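Troubleshooting log. The previous structure file for this entry was overwritten by mistake, so regenerating from the original sequence record. Sequence copied from the archived sheet and checked twice against the printout by T.R.
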Amino acid sequence: MSSKPSLLNRCIAEAIGTGAIVLFGCGAIILASQGQHSGSVIPLVFGLIVSAMIYALGHISGAHFNPAVSFGFLVVRHFAFKDFLAYVAAQISGSLLAILLLRVTFPASQTYGATTPSVSPEIALVWECVLSFFLMLVILSVATDTRAVGTMAGAAIGAMIMVGAFVGGPLTGGSMNPARSLAPALIEGEISALWIYIIGPVAGTAIAALTYKRLAAINATKIPGANPGEAAKSL
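Regenerated output below.
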């Protein structure tokens, strides 16, 4: 039996995975803003890169790639607090490095993928919470519960990202991920609405985690995936 990857290796995997999501997802937004392709491909790019990174790195880190997802696991005691802090630092670092690469390679771009609501802040907050709720619900069911089809975890989670981006995109940008929203917001100086993309996803994933714990009718500490290394075994 292989040993659990070190926290450092897991954090590196989280940084790479989160960075890839920001690099290719926000890269697609930049290219769409320049007329290189239709904006309708943006949700597809986000969903596909999430799926790809889950299959590539899930067995190393558990493939959170999202501070709100890590928080959801923390809420139901699937995750140690020290690991949570390390994961969030890695996720934010990966997203910042990715957006800096986009800034260097697309210096004239008018956007770097910052998420801003087209509806009122209150409605945007609700939508980010709801979208993140369903994302976390899918993650918990297919990636941590052995009663589900674990081999389809990447496809199912990627599909949820696509659906969330298609529906929530026109309203909020369909972020569902504080790290994905933070880096572009800092580069563009669009931080006034950033609280929506932190509070909404964190609240949504926490509610989903508690809901699934109740629905699954099993003790959270006995669900495979109580730590990222174990969760990855079902991917």
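The chain is about 70% helix and 0% strand. Archived copy saved in two places this time.
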